[in-house]
Amino acid sequence: MYAELAGARIFFDTVGSQLGLGDEGMLPRPTLIALHGGPGSDHSGLRPYFDRFADTCQVLYVDHRGNGRSSGEASSWTLQQWGADLKALCDLLGIEKPIVYGNSFGGMVAMSYAAQFPDHPAGLILSSTAARLRLDVSYAMMEAKGGPRARQLAERLFTEADEAVMAEYRAVCLPLYNPCPDPQDGAISMRALLRGDVARHFFLGEMRTMDGREGLGRIACPTLVLAGAHDPITPLACSEEIVASLPPGLGRIEVFPDAGHGVHRDDPQQAETAIRTFLASIV
Question: Which residues make Cβ contacts (< 8 Å) with residue 273, sequence separation at least 6?
Fold first, then answer.
C-alpha cells in the first residue's frame, strides 16, 4: 500500500487488525510501528521477527522515504524529514499513540520523530542504534573482531562509501555484526530491496555529524533501549548514551550479552520477551 506525502510516495504494509473481537463489541488494539535499518534497505528483514506481534497489536511496516519501495528526492533524505514522515503517515492513517520500534537506522528515525512530536508516541523501543556515532569504539571493535582490514574498511565506509567499498564492507564487516548467524539471513537478503545511493548519502553526510542527544531530552514517553554487547557499529556505549540523555525515569536499557547488531536476530526469544513485557506495561 502507498501513502502520498509531501514530495514522496511512501510504501507501508500492515499485519494484524486494528480492532479485535470482544465479547461485547470490537476492542481497539495498539499499533506497533516497526522501522527498518539500513539506510537504503526496506522493511522485509523485520517481517520474520515482528509479524508474531500481530497477536496483540496491529503491526505497521514502513519503507522510509527513498528506501525500498518509497520515493523521494535526495534533498529530502534527512533524519528530520524521515521523522516528520512518520507523523504525517500516522495522521493520514488515523493512528494515535503508536508504539514505535526502530532498529539501527530505524532507531535514528524513531528518535527524530519522538523529539519533533513528543506527545505523539505512547512508547519507543530503540534497538541497536545511536544518537551519535562512536566511531572510535566501532573502529577498535572492528579491528578486534576482524583485524586491520576490517578497521580500514569501516573507516573508508565513512569517508568514501563508493560501490566497491560498500561491497567489500558487506563481505568483510557485516559478518562481524552478529556472533550468532541466523539461518534466515540468506532468504532475508534475497528479499531485500537495496538502495546504495541512499546509504552513501547518509554514510557520507548526516550519519557522521548527527548528534541527537539534545532531542532525546524532549522525548516524553517510556523508552526501552535494546543493546547487544558484541555490536561493533552501534556499540553499547551508544545505547548507554541514549538512556543518559533521556529525561529521568523514562529510559530503561536491556543488554543482551550474547548478541550483536539487531538483538532480535541473535537472541530472538529474549528480544521478544523484552518487547512483549514493555508493550504490556504501556497498553
Answer: none
Helices first, then strands: H and E counts in the chain:
12, 10
User: How many domains, in total, are found in the chain?
Assistant: 2
CATH number at residue 122: 3.40.50.1820
Q: Are strands 19-22 and 25-28 parallel, antiparallel or unpaired?
A: antiparallel
What order do you get walking across the sheet with 58-62 strand by strand? 2-5, 8-15, 58-62, 31-35, 99-103, 123-127, 223-228, 251-256
- Residue 159 and residue 244 share a domain: no
Under DSSP, the state recorded for 78 is S
Output 184 or 229, whichever has higher pLDDT.
229
Structural domain span for residue 157? 135-177
Write out the three cell numbers for 74. Answer: 535526495
pLDDT band for position 249 (cuts 50, 70, 90): very high
Of 146, 177, 208, which marks where a domain is finished? Answer: 177
Residues 121 and 148 in one domain: no
Could you report the per-residue pLDDT of 77-136, keeping only the tens digit for each? 999 999 999 999 999 999 999 999 999 999 999 999 999 999 999 999 999 999 999 999
